[in-house]
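Narrative progress, year one. The postdoctoral researcher (J.K.) led the effort to move from monomer predictions toward full complexes, under supervision of the PI. The following entry was the first complex the group processed end to end, covering 841 residues in total.
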Amino acid sequence: MGLVDKGRLPAPLTKLFNLSRSYSLWVYQWGLACCAIEMGAAFGSPRYDVMRLGVIPLPASPRQADFVCVSGTVTDKMAPAVKRLWEQMPEPKYAISMGSCANCGGPYWDSYSVTKGVDQIIPIDVYVPGCPPRPEALLEGIVLLQQRIKNEDMAAKWRGDEFTTLQRTRAMEAGEVDREGELISDTRSISDEPMPEVAAAHPEPIVVGGGPIE
Amino acid sequence: MAQLSDDTQTPQGDTAPAALPGDGLREGIVDTLRNDIGEALLDTLLKPNDDLWVRVSTESWLATGQALKAAGFTYFCFLSAIDWMPSPFGNSQDDPDDEPKQIDMTIKQGYTGGETRMQVFARLTDIDRHVGITVKADVADDNQVVDSWSQLFAGANWHERECHEMFGIGFNNHPDLRNMYLPGDFEGYPLKKDFPLLARMVKPWPGIVDVEPMPDFEEAADAPAAEAPAGAIEGAES
Amino acid sequence: MTLTDRQQLSYIASQAADARLNVELETEGMTLNIGPQHPATHGTLRIIARLDGEQVVWAEPVAGYMHRGYEKLTEVRTFPQVTSLINRIDWLGSFANEVPFILAAEKLMEIEAPPRAQVIRTILFELSRIANVSLFLGDLGVQMGAITPVFLAFRDREYILNLIEGATGGRFHPNFDRIGGLKDDLPKGWIQETKGAVKKLEEFCDTIDDLLFGNEIFQSRMRGIGVIPADIAKDYGLSGANARASGIDWDLRRDQDLPLSYDLADWKVWTHPDGDSWARCWIRLQETRESCKIVGQLLDQIPAGPVMTKVPRIIKVPEGEAWVATENPLGEMGYYVVSKGGLGPFRVKIRSASFNNISIVPWALKGVYVPDIITILASLYFILGDIDR
């Protein structure tokens, strides 16, 4: 991947790599508590099948995984293990924090032994709220992660920079935005078509049984 | 494969011990215990056909366990401690914007009384007679140590470890008194009332906040019963 | 053909060399660390085992990786807040965790839930038991290396979770019990759905019986392994199916007088005299079938009436202490509630079943082989939230 090193990967190739990466993710299930059961239902049950998204929930070790799904309460005793396992994962790697315990401490926010959010230990890409989040919510979180990966600038990630989208990198190269400047294109959009134009005049809202809202 | 061993039949109600009026079963247990440990039985509370509490002296903690085990209480349920001091930080049910209320710090023990701030208590069950007993003992304020039950009931080992790390109570003759749950470098004894929950110090809970006024609950309780016709109630028997 | 002298001498020399090598090679014990993150442990349990070859010399579980400080947290919460928190102790059969706490609070307030609420409570309790143990049965296969049963378990468990969600609003962690009754009445059509789902669960039990329990490999890996005699079980406080598999005839549903409706149904308590891993798993299978029967019978006997007695909106439980224990899916779970007349409890001691069940592991794992560690742990069946609270 010498092209990635030098940062000269052409955009169509990046798009192709991003697309194929996002549709063949291997997820390491870091299931700690109750959210692990919902994660198991999302990954292992035939009803909320996650394999239809291209995500394979079967790596035997973190060294074979693309992203980790931290689900459940992280305690201070467990935190070093989380850190060590995160470091064992090879780049490019992502993390989803599932459930309110992993997001921010959750219902145990005042406990003496709970880490208030796993993002104190590892960098998180997607937060899935809920206690526990439904399996469909976790699947939406994975879809959001896939969108994030599709937009990603691989060269920046290879260098270890913060997450940057392709659009932003190209905008910076074209001189349209500076390092800290506003993004011109929306990071969430998958294509680089221009944003749709807003209608010039708002139509009056229709109020049943009354006039316009004052 | 050989057929499995047969299962037991559910015993009928008349083979289970019937509680005599006035609960002779539990009174008999108290009498047996008093015969065994005599003066060390400091106080008892018997709720007829419900439950039984006894309090014994600290020195006789182990002897009480032995006496009860010999009397048939062979099933070890649990062992823990209670800290009777009210929490100096309040229990965060008041609005933090109000002025802090003066907390009454008198130590008042519960059932069967007591003289010290900490008490150990344990629960044993007699499986054959379907009865349980809660045993309590004071822990002296200046010397927070009691005898260990781990030689008597093997299951008490872990319970005493947990009690030690949460309350700081020592146990004599315990084979291995180290932390059960907390990491090795944890400082303090969490379940003591003077151990603060730091997250609540930093950001207090807003207290009981009434979001909207509720209707008068007498009307609310009567209204649904009047509205629902008999046939609409799910699964109701006529 | 006779050997020449030279060949005989060289043979003897090679034997002597081998013997010297064996003497010099002293084997040392190896320390094997299972967990805390391991697919076979039901969560973050760490077992440190010292091995001699393939045999365990000494093993010890290290708990605390899921310790969330429940008993301290209950002191700063009101009774309804505590109810919503304690759902998460045994996170597979969540409704079952609320019931002993609510019963203890009702005992202190000296009120009883109306009969309709009692029957519905019992039905939901048994449904949570079925949900919990059906996952155990599926996981049993995974511990041995058979992957299919867990998919069947997740699929059939969805029926139960649908029912619980239909009645309470949450797939698990329903938070449905209230002091004085239940939060709400049952939705329309729930009873018919439950009857259908219970039939499906009975078929699931039969499938697992064929797939797993009749399987020769399963039997040879479980029979005679991890025998726990009855008096050791009582010393450690083993409860639930673990105790009944050692021959102790003790079931809190039958042997206690709680305001739950077990006497309305005709069911039996299963025991087994062997006390090995096979017996523990078999008892759980039979108990699941029994629970299906209980639910089917109780569904026809729900009386009409309110689901909540008259209690004030803001509940202050009077001063006192109460102990209530019920037969939860994992064993005997009890709450010792100390109240001082406030909005919340003064101290709650949570007696969780898995804590006692796992305290026997150092005793049970002496001298077993490494694969048996997994099967013994599987048969003892614990949930980490229950051990660590």
